[in-house]
């Protein structure tokens, strides 16, 4: 799993959350769009959590890259920028889920549990 998040505190919370999800481990953590693109070029991920505001670049660039990936991972946007137009743009760029950091953080775990069940049945989202 890839975490694309510039806040060390949020990354730490996500690491704890993912650790509680059976069958998943974070294999890469990055803080910027260029780092995310490099990680995606080097490794295949089953799931990616993307923040929109990054140290360099944006999560939108990461979403564009994921949209064209040969095997698209489960893509979750986790952001504080949760307006309707931003949500619609993310979904148009292929995000499977869009979560508000303030009140939907734990839904990342629910999405991972659903992905695990899907992978167990031999399918990918």
How would you describe this protein?
Residues 1-116 form the Response regulatory domain. Keywords: Phosphoprotein. The modification 4-aspartylphosphate is found at residue 51. With 125 residues, this protein is an alpha/beta fold. It has helices spanning 8-19, 33-42, 59-67, 84-92, 107-120, and strands spanning 2-4, 28-30, 47-50, 74-79, 97-100. A 5-stranded parallel sheet has the order 2-1-3-4-5, sandwiched between helices. The chain is globular and about 35 Å long.
**Widest sheet: strand order?**
2-1-3-4-5
Helix content: 40-55%
Strand % is 15-25%
Largest sheet: 5 strands, parallel
Can you identify the CATH class?
Alpha Beta
CATH superfamily: Response regulator
């Amino acid at each position: 799993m890839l975490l694309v998040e510039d806040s060390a505190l949020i990354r730490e919370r996500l690491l704890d959350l993912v650790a509680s999800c059976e069958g998943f481990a974070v294999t890469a953590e990055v803080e910027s769009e260029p780092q995310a693109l490099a990680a995606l070029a080097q490794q295949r991920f089953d799931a990616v959590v993307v923040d929109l505001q990054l140290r360099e670049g944006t999560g939108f660039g990461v979403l564009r890259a994921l949209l064209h990936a040969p095997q698209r991972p489960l893509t979750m946007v986790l952001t504080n920028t949760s307006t309707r137009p931003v949500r619609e743009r993310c979904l148009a760029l292929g995000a499977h889920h869009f979560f508000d950091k303030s009140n939907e953080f734990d839904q990342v775990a629910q999405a991972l549990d659903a992905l695990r069940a899907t992978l167990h049945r031999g399918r990918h989202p």
